[in-house]
Amino acid sequence: MKQRVAIAAVLAALAALPQAADAQAIRARYLYSLSTLNGFIPFQGARLSYDARDDELFVLGGGGVRVFNQSGMEVFAFGEDRELGSVLSIAALDDGELMALTADQQLTLVRCNFRGEVLHKVAVTGLPPSLTNFRPGGLRQAQGHLYLCDFGAMKVVVTDLEGRFQQLLDVGPMLEVKNEQQRQDLGFKGFNVDREGNVLFTIQPLFRAFVLSLDGKLRPFGQRGGAPGKFNIVAGIAADEQGRIYVTDLLKSAVLVFDKELRFQREFGYRGPNPENLLAPVDIEAGHGRVFVSQYARRGVSVFQIEDAAQLLN
After folding, report:
1. How far apart are CA 180 and CA 186, in angstroms?
2. pLDDT by residue (tens digit) across 138-188?
3. DSSP-based helix, strand, coil % in the chain, nearest 5
4. DSSP one-letter string for 258-275
5. Which residues, 6 or more positions from 87, have their beta carbon under 8 angstroms from its beta carbon?
6. Where are the NHL repeats (predicted)?
7. What are the sequence ranges of the domains in the chain?
8. Quick check: pTM over 0.85?
9. Domain 27-42+189-313: assigned CATH number
């Protein structure tokens, strides 16, 4: 009973949300689905990571990593060798190298070259005693910092590129979470980091998405409902260079787009037989004017071109 009251209090506290912007400010145009020379790849709920420097997309599944260029064609794959291990998440570094989070008993990262060849391991050091059970499943890099996310614990650890602890972002107290059971009941579904180093995440039971800055400022957005701009079952989240934020909704089978002020702009996708339709979109990435959407039901990864008002007038 106390747990339900606490969650209700959080929902009430988040009631003051940004209002909708011009819903026709942008358009999403389907481009293609990720493929090889042999044709379409029926990925199933694949995890995504985007390399803005080289304009490449990493698709993770089954412990391996597949790399796609700006045309949506597979150009390389790695991660099936014993030295690297099973890759849970991967982040591109500013110098062209990669940092991988692997399914290891110890909290250790693996630095690789652009081909996924192991350079050396990076131990995460300096963690406070309260993080003894920290078990990250997500990894991102921004502004020279590494971000490791423990989805169930609702915690993000920030380190430097050598794995030295710098900061803990604990979302639990920010949402007045009272105990570990409530943390697990809520948890993160989607996790990402924008170009400025803000943490993006979604929480399904709250029907909300959030932006969290390194100084601890938490900005919620979205609300429950079936109308455009409202959430049913939130999942993945990403931001592009313009600050637009994209959130996938599993039940709507749509992507919701918000501007940098967190005002709703439009939705796209929806169930249907056409290439531009989506089915249970789960993970998402964005960059260089494109949005990459991973789906269930063997629908693969669809790629959309994002066109703003100025482009639509040309």
Report:
1. 10
2. 999 999 999 999 999 999 999 999 999 999 999 999 999 989 899 999 999
3. 10, 45, 45
4. E-TT--EEEEEE-SSSST
5. 60, 63, 64, 65, 79, 100, 101, 102, 103
6. 221-261
7. 27-42+189-313
8. yes
9. 2.120.10.30
